Zinc-binding dehydrogenase
Amino acid sequence: MNSIAVVNFAPKKGSVEIREIPRPEIGEDDILLEVANVGVCGSDLHQWTCDHSWPVNYPVVLGHEFGGHIVELGKRVEGWNEGDRVVSETAAVIDMNNPMSRQGLYNLDPTRKGFGYGVNGAMTRFVKVPARCLHAVPKNLSFEQACLTEPCSVAYNAVVMNSNINPGDRVLVIGPGTIGILCAAIARLCGAEVAIVGLETDNTRLEIAKQFGCEALVGDAYEWAMKYDGLGVDCVIDAAGVSATLKMALQWVRPNGQITKVGWGPKPLDFSLDPLVQKNVRLQGSFSHNWPIWEKVISLLSSGILDVRPIIGGVWSLTDWHEAFEQMHSGKVVKSVLKPV
Amino acid sequence: MNSIAVVNFAPKKGSVEIREIPRPEIGEDDILLEVANVGVCGSDLHQWTCDHSWPVNYPVVLGHEFGGHIVELGKRVEGWNEGDRVVSETAAVIDMNNPMSRQGLYNLDPTRKGFGYGVNGAMTRFVKVPARCLHAVPKNLSFEQACLTEPCSVAYNAVVMNSNINPGDRVLVIGPGTIGILCAAIARLCGAEVAIVGLETDNTRLEIAKQFGCEALVGDAYEWAMKYDGLGVDCVIDAAGVSATLKMALQWVRPNGQITKVGWGPKPLDFSLDPLVQKNVRLQGSFSHNWPIWEKVISLLSSGILDVRPIIGGVWSLTDWHEAFEQMHSGKVVKSVLKPV
Amino acid sequence: MNSIAVVNFAPKKGSVEIREIPRPEIGEDDILLEVANVGVCGSDLHQWTCDHSWPVNYPVVLGHEFGGHIVELGKRVEGWNEGDRVVSETAAVIDMNNPMSRQGLYNLDPTRKGFGYGVNGAMTRFVKVPARCLHAVPKNLSFEQACLTEPCSVAYNAVVMNSNINPGDRVLVIGPGTIGILCAAIARLCGAEVAIVGLETDNTRLEIAKQFGCEALVGDAYEWAMKYDGLGVDCVIDAAGVSATLKMALQWVRPNGQITKVGWGPKPLDFSLDPLVQKNVRLQGSFSHNWPIWEKVISLLSSGILDVRPIIGGVWSLTDWHEAFEQMHSGKVVKSVLKPV
Amino acid sequence: MNSIAVVNFAPKKGSVEIREIPRPEIGEDDILLEVANVGVCGSDLHQWTCDHSWPVNYPVVLGHEFGGHIVELGKRVEGWNEGDRVVSETAAVIDMNNPMSRQGLYNLDPTRKGFGYGVNGAMTRFVKVPARCLHAVPKNLSFEQACLTEPCSVAYNAVVMNSNINPGDRVLVIGPGTIGILCAAIARLCGAEVAIVGLETDNTRLEIAKQFGCEALVGDAYEWAMKYDGLGVDCVIDAAGVSATLKMALQWVRPNGQITKVGWGPKPLDFSLDPLVQKNVRLQGSFSHNWPIWEKVISLLSSGILDVRPIIGGVWSLTDWHEAFEQMHSGKVVKSVLKPV
């Protein structure tokens, strides 16, 4: 029984198309998931436009933000049943004996491989998932929202685990993409006063960001950063990742403050980090997420404390993947979601 | 009554000479200190060679690593007596109402001015010191050692307060200057396995570093960093501060590890910080020190747990300041100490 | 010029009455404050009913939760002006040279003395306040709310500084008095799911607590603590302070979780702390507050992120102090506020 | 093929004897270990004298501090080979799906069962061990020392993971048993000034403790705690666990300090915890250990930074178990070690 899939087939711009693939065979520690919804990630777009910086096992089914129902269980799988509503983490292949994995930080195991680039992802009907990746989705939480657990977990790791934000703190987020907006939303959940800063072309996204209770700034945030006592903000979250944003972050952050870097960019920095020393500032990289973070995020989504619906720009069928990708790529929507069946 | 002083008189290379200065008049919150010993700091050398990057109030008496006896007390000073043996912190002028000062972090008050560049320092017989800067020196601790409380406090802040180093951790220190060697020494006190890495020209200093129980490496530390599990070291302390050392630090540090940056350098970085994100690494700037750090360091020096004598390359009279500066500048000694009287 | 004051005059039950006192003379580091509002604290009630456990300098003007305008300045006071709207911290007398004070933790200086028991408090028209105790109150924040900065700071210290609460955590607060309710409110600001537990007689207060977005439980919280995964809650905040509540807290808290003890009680415990060891739990005492906490709380009150109006049960004139005390003592209101002028 | 084993066969005082048991059959995730050395733990003595407080699956082979060679591997075991030198963690049975296990804190999984009480332990020739429990022992580390990895890990968790001890801190350890002495040793590794306090009858053990660089006190430690600034010590580690020691700890600890409770005791406390609140003190329970702790301890033992030989009072054959138990029970030795083959 074959199903259609959104396949990235070569390291060339635009090398994504619908193909038919067979139903995966699962191992004894895996389950087979019937995908209900799968979000489009910026990294899916990067593989599509071929300006990504990670190795891809071509051809590969795209998609790593997904949830659905269990339809088959490997013989050693315990604690799960057919029909269970679940979302899946993204670290599809890890070395269980790696020291990072042994500490629960398998997301930092250098040998890991993820869905959508290392192994087949979820932009299709059936996907093979190791049982250790699963998290239960409560009935009251729709899959359209639940499939955003992954980017929420990226933001939760950046804002909660890798930053120290307290009620009354002032936080600046740079870059109103999915991750930036979710970081702003979670910083608000921490009781902070939050502003998000973007370019003039980000107007649509900045309007959406406002729905999460933060201010939206265009261009320069220096004035916002310095108001009250002139020393700067407690935390800057750099969700953009270019040289210029980190340079600004160093100006905006207060002494003994923090900059959290969740955005990437391969280009060299073109300034000195002396302000980091002089201000005794922490610059903290934040990468992906792990089991306890997923549980916290699902709990926030299920209780309604975190409501991601404002960032969902639409739901498309697999065959309309191109439209879904385009809408997001052009910035018309923050997040596109696909529905395989 | 005049005394001689080592005075930096102009923003020009070599503008340091012996001059006579009057005995300072103190305010009601100050004491007058008769200097017993004063260490030469790398920043004194930078002002001498005029490649410093901070504003200097010319002419100014150099020297901010010092201790001695109290000879006069302002009328509002409480808790101190004539004859008390003391060392002095370096933040000579601060805004007590600044939010950083109100939290005990006056070292990060942007308006502060220090001895030896902002106000007259201690390379002379008498120096005016605000009583809030003082720390008692136990009888069993000589002033030759006590005057190194300042650089030890820089290292303590970097290694203990701004890093998280536990027994059994592996730590790499880059740059075998005074601060680098003291960072290595304090990392050993934290129970870590420590190596310090320098250039071939650092041989003398690396030999001294070994006396603090750490390994000395020349050039590349990759192999040392990767031995055991191939993931890298728990912490890299960058006491060099050039672009190249931070780039290496990012290679040597393990996922979820830390780089502490205590070394400065005005030149731009020439690489991307993507490994910081990918490895979820903390890059922490560390600057100067404050009251509780000074107390801990004096306690370590007094108990003998930290013995700084190996780094003291000699003690010179004020009139021999040029020799003391030269020996240190050339790398023949790690630390020169002056004795005004 | 005399003013009336609510004076606690002897270590005997009911020894509180209105007396006339002269306008205080201030020292060179003090300001004179004209009190706009002063909150009634549980400790004022304890001194009234004489079941307090701290030394009192009889006779003493009660009241340590207060704000108003500056009407006079000592000659060394900088940074403040006549007419400034301010609230005052409570540590009226401290030893500036005490090691705790030197670290900004003057609230833990064992020699400190507070308003309302150690020196005259604010249930009167004029109160002498050291300038170091002052915090500016923004125009948009009324004194009725601002005078609650003190109990809010107690709660902020307990919940934010002395606990580690993250979005999605589950928190149980025991005891719906002022501090308990404010702890619940601030735990909600941290993004937690919060329940507060009281007795049947606490019904009025539990209803008020609900307005801060938390659930209200009567009697036993075991079921609430165990729902979801049966392991217990991330944090229990004990704002009651009797032996029985700590015993329950140990049952309700999950392994590796935390109990924060902000409530007092002189009676001995009657159980073993073995569950604390077995579950690897942190039991953290929390006491009062310091400068940065006051700034954060004022910022939360001023921005409206924290709205304390639901707990204010009424505002009385000084001469009606007895009614104000009674209403609060009987549990009819959570917090009574007085208005001297 | 049968082997002799030290078996605890009933919940009655003295119910330990040598019995013959068959060679264990291993599952697909297990290995079979040939025991080289096994330490006697206080809990083995408690089961022998039947004053333990945990459930025991009688009859059970005692012993959970052990190391040896792998002689057989289950078919799914990866990363290990026959002949490998290993030590084993103690959590023989855990629920891999428990939220604590999913975070790497399987030691706090309430369903776990350990060697020596829940399943057969290592006071015999062959013991079945899940591969996930194993840690490699470097060649230069003898099994006599390596078998003490377990109590060292208990101490490391208490002192390093569950306390915050920095160079120059002052630490008091109460109770000079194995855990107390190892806590003192590791606190010294953290750069602290350490004293250990015991009773007059602890003289032999206190002398051994001194070999780890700490002072030994008999009876009262108040004077030691208060010297220097009269505020108390930074950390008290209670390795005794009776009501009286925690009461003293509360007197000896400084404001904002910490008490770490690693000792147990079923008797009720008979005092109020008000000083914990008033001093803003952290009372932290510490229980067992997990994977990264074992790796750190093995590294400390292998590098010689931590040398446990002073506490090993002797090595006995299995048939001399009674003598080994007696020597330790009477306090004549700190730690007895058995050698099965």
